[in-house]
């Protein structure tokens, strides 16, 4: 980074950004400064035109700078919901590309990866995508190398999947600048159990039970991975069993024991969750969403969607705000 004495970090805020993603990065950096007895890190809040920005929780923030005034900065993180973007995309995207060309490390946390990728600055580099945005991200950016790791860090781009991952990323910045002992003490200050790094995959909830996907039995987990890779071209339970090397009866029994559901119902729930991400976070036509999750027409999607969520995709989209996801309950940006 250009400034070796003090690392200057900017947070570019968009309306609907998750407040936790901001504080989870700033607070460990503040603690590191106190522990080290020096201002190793400094930070500022930016918005597109230095306008006030409202977080997903309704808290309003004053920006200290506009993006155009952001010149001498080492790292710029974008914080947003997946649907956020610049009012003037040409100017905003151009400003990000200019910063990248002049040595600023660019990054996005949680939904912030959406405007980051839209700006055209990733240049084929991998991106950490939060699991709850995965289907929407793949629908909008099918050619981008999206990863399920909590952090994806290259020489010039940093991305993290959610607020806790942002904390981990801050610990890595602290370790790089001040050493492992300071980073460990910061983690202890906040009772953060461990510093996760590149290659660590996200914890993902199961479709039907209060556990995470990595707690599923190996046979069920293997099937779920197969199902996830066959959203647009669904496979039968018999085909999945054959690929894994077991019988369909074994698959049925394993799913019933682990999830309380048949594998076909679990698979359909996965497809419905993917459909709802696309309904919530994209503007894709419903027919395209149906095709993306393996339906030949809209009608069966509507039937299964209504069964899962209590309303049709079109009705859901009309009611959409950027905070709602399932059970007609709010979906905060994460």
UniProtKB/TrEMBL annotation:
Molecular function, one GO term: sequence-specific DNA binding
HTH araC/xylS-type domain segment(s): 221-319
Gene3D superfamilies listed in its UniProt record: 3.40.50.880, Homeodomain-like
SMART domains: HTH_ARAC (SM00342)
InterPro entries: Class_I_gatase-like (IPR029062), Homeodomain-like_sf (IPR009057), HTH_AraC (IPR018060), HTH_AraC-typ_CS (IPR018062), INH-QAR (IPR052158)
Signal peptide: none
Pfam family, one: HTH_18
Record keywords: DNA-binding, Transcription, Transcription regulation
This protein's name: Carnitine catabolism transcriptional activator
């Amino acid at each position: 980074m250009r400034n070796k004495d003090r690392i200057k970090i900017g947070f570019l805020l968009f309306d609907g950004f998750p407040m936790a993603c901001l504080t989870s990065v700033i607070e460990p950096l503040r603690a590191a400064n106190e522990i080290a007895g020096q201002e190793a890190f400094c930070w500022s809040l930016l918005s597109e035109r230095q306008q006030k920005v409202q977080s997903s929780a309704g808290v309003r923030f004053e920006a200290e700078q506009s993006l155009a005034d952001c010149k001498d900065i080492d790292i710029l993180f974008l914080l947003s919901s997946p649907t956020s973007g610049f009012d003037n995309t040409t100017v905003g995207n151009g400003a990000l590309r200019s910063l990248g060309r002049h040595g600023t490390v660019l990054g996005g946390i949680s939904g912030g990866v959406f405007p980051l990728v839209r700006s055209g600055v990733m240049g084929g580099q991998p991106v950490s995508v939060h699991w709850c945005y995965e289907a929407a991200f793949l629908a909008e950016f099918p050619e981008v190398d999206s990863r399920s790791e909590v952090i994806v860090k290259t020489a010039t781009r940093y991305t993290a999947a959610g607020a806790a991952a942002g904390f981990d990323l801050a610990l890595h910045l602290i370790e790089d600048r001040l050493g492992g002992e300071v980073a460990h003490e910061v983690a202890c200050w906040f009772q953060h159990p461990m510093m996760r790094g590149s290659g660590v995959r996200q914890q993902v909830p199961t479709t039907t039970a209060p556990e995470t996907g990595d707690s599923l039995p190996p046979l069920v987990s293997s099937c779920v991975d197969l199902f996830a890779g066959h959203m647009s071209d669904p496979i039968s339970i018999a085909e999945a069993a054959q690929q894994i090397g077991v019988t369909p009866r074994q698959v049925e029994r394993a799913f019933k024991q682990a999830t309380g559901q048949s594998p076909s119902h679990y698979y359909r729930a996965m497809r419905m969750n993917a459909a709802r991400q696309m309904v919530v976070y994209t503007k894709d036509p419903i027919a395209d969403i149906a095709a993306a999750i393996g339906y030949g027409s809209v009608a069966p999607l509507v039937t299964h969607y209504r069964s899962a969520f209590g309303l049709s995709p079109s009705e859901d989209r009309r009611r959409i705000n950027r905070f709602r996801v399932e059970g007609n309950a709010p979906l905060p940006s994460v």
